[in-house]
Amino acid sequence: MEGLELIAFNIISNVGTAKSMGIEALMKGRSRKMKEAEDLLKEASTFMREGHKSHAELIQNEAKGNKQEFSLLLMHAEDQLMSAETILCLAKEMLYLQNELNELKS
């Protein structure tokens, strides 16, 4: 595997891991394990950065005139990138609210 396929799988792998960590962070928050939840979100952001780096590489190549053919695999990778981004943004907000709720219950 090389080229576009390798880049697409790199995006899918990294952002998939980040998305899973975001969901796991929400479950930790629900269990009042806020430090663990925050740590998961920090680690998830590392995986997101790697996914974004790979995506940026594709964009830079196209800007240099190296056009890629349409690829369902790349479309899937970009879809996963955006859904992971959304989940992590929402997870941060939901954990903030869960923390406030936990403080009210204390």
From TrEMBL:
The modification Phosphohistidine is found at residue 76. This is PTS lactose/cellobiose transporter subunit IIA. InterPro entries: PTS_IIA_lac/cel. It comes from the Bacteria. Pfam families: PTS_IIA (PF02255).
